[in-house]
UniProtKB/TrEMBL annotation:
Gene3D superfamilies documented for this protein: Glucose Permease (Domain IIA)
Domain of life, source organism: Bacteria
Keywords: Signal
Keyword Signal: yes
Name of this chain's protein: M23 family metallopeptidase
Pfam families: Peptidase_M23
Amino acid sequence: MKEKMSQLFKDKVFLVLLVLGLLTIVAAAGVITIQRGNNDGQSPYLEVPDQKGVIAEETIPQENQVAVAGDSNAEQNLDADTQVADSAKATAKAETEAKNPAVKAGAEKEAAAALVLNFNDATKMAWPVSGNVILDYSMESTIYFPTLDQYKCNPGIVIQGAVSTPVVAPANAKIQEIGSNEELGNYVILNMGNDYTAVCGQLKELQVVENEYVAQGDVLGYVAEPTKYYSIEGANLYFELEHENQPVDPLDYMQ
């Protein structure tokens, strides 16, 4: 009886193990089939997400940060050097102007503003052009004008000069008027202060404009071909000096 029971128990254990083994095989076969059926050609390996965004957001290494800071310092140093250079130029300009107070026609306004227009009866003018006086100032008596072939008073002087000779300002002045007429050709009227004005006529290639300040010795223009009123006298500069709108003898004020 015991032997039968033992044999029966063994048979049951064998059947249980057999069933479990079959179930295990069937389950394994099903997993393999499912994996093969759902693969759809994709790689069975784990895909790593794209790291480009992560790399772009990486913190700059410390040594690179130092380099960037160095570039900023270099730019600051360059700006400082530029400021120093500009300051040196301004200083050199100031020193040059201090050594040479004459301001060329068309110079900067701040330099022109430094000119003092204080002409008076004790002031001595520079000759606007070098040359012989071919017609004198004469308001008390008449003098002979060869081209006109007549005698008349002369409110100014006529200075001989070759064509294209530079004509300079006789004193510090402001350009009051620029004009032209048949007798004087192109002319410039200078306001020298204290109601003193001067007229320079028979000019060409004017180098100044109205309301501009000029210093003594600055070029106003050049001697032109004579007008028909002075064809016999030849190329010249007409120069007239007035005080309070009355002509005075320019030679009394010449250096």
